[in-house]
Write a structure and sequence with these properties.
251 residues; Rossmann fold; SIR2/SIRT2 'Small Domain'; six-stranded parallel β-sheet; two-stranded antiparallel sheet; 11 helices; binds 2'-O-acetyl adenosine-5-diphosphoribose
Amino acid sequence: MIIPPLLLKSLATATRVAALTGAGISAESGVPTFRGANGLWKEMRAEELASMEGFLKNPALVWEWYAHRRAILQTVQPNAGHRALVDLERLYPGLVVITQNVDGLHRRAGSSRVYELHGNIERNSCTACGEPHPSTAVALRDGRPMCTRCGGLVRPDVVWFGELLPEEEWEESVRASRAADLFLSIGTSGLVFPAASLPLVARDAGAVVVEVNPEESPLTVAADVSLRGPAGEVLPALVEAARGVTRSPRA
Ligand code: OAD
């Protein structure tokens, strides 16, 4: 993979690196993306499965869908793309991973600073009393997930359409994007806001913005460099290039 001179220069001088990731980085682990040819939203209606309205209409169906996705996650592992971000963190201590993914694969790979903007599919809480419930211990009544403390409905701790992002994660993500001198946007369609605004925040604050995606996206025009290819191949190449131009580890 040819790394353009602008990116090589940025890899050599960057001290603050942030990476925004989307479903594309987990695709090579076998986790389905939302959009695209085999995307989840092709087969299913997002409003039915990923909104409070849809959940209240049919909690059993929504719960079953999340249980199915959790079951997929039991069988998958972080891939070379996730691991490359861990390697980059060694070269750029303090590297921040801002993810839209709810699959927990960045933490499993070993990234230490991860902001989960859309929550985490392994956590659940009661919609009535807020009690947290581990996925393995949610009681079902006619397929509906019930809170054993108050009898309310239990929901996954993921951000649904129309809901606000977790405040602290969002604020930290904006801060890291503003502070970044190198910003990587990896495997995201760039269609869901406010996450999709972060590359623009970084660019406006002076960062070199790099898109990693096999396809063009609405973020392409905002990126200084587009690396076309799967994250599992592009990111290890980026790590190699960074090793060539940095003295590791950076202060
Ligand atoms: P999308 O499914 O919208 O986009 C996935 C992107 O990954 C596309 O641009 C693909 O071209 C790209 N892609 C596919 N394979 C790749 C690979 N191997 N390496 C790199 N890129 C690859 O996923 P997101 O952008 O994450 O929100 O979607 C954003 C949000 O929309 C999700 O967090 C979810 C969804 O509705 C909620 O559930 C709140």
